[in-house]
Amino acid sequence: MEELLRTTDITIIPLARALLQDEGIDSFELDVNMSVLEGSIGILPRRLMVRSADLRAARQLMLDSGVPLDR
Fold it and tell me: Who contacts 59 (Cβ-Cβ below 8 Å, separation ≥6)?
């Protein structure tokens, strides 16, 4: 698995996952429990992971859809 994006913006991960799912690219969200433990105040970023073989296509999809990869 490779990191596609890392963000503290709670709206980015669901958007990215929906776009990936529509293209048949599996994804996995990491650090969900850590953000819950810190009280959901947005200090700790969540990470979205994809398979190494899908990373290039997933990055292009995010760029084409206007999803920021560097937040």
Answer: 4, 69
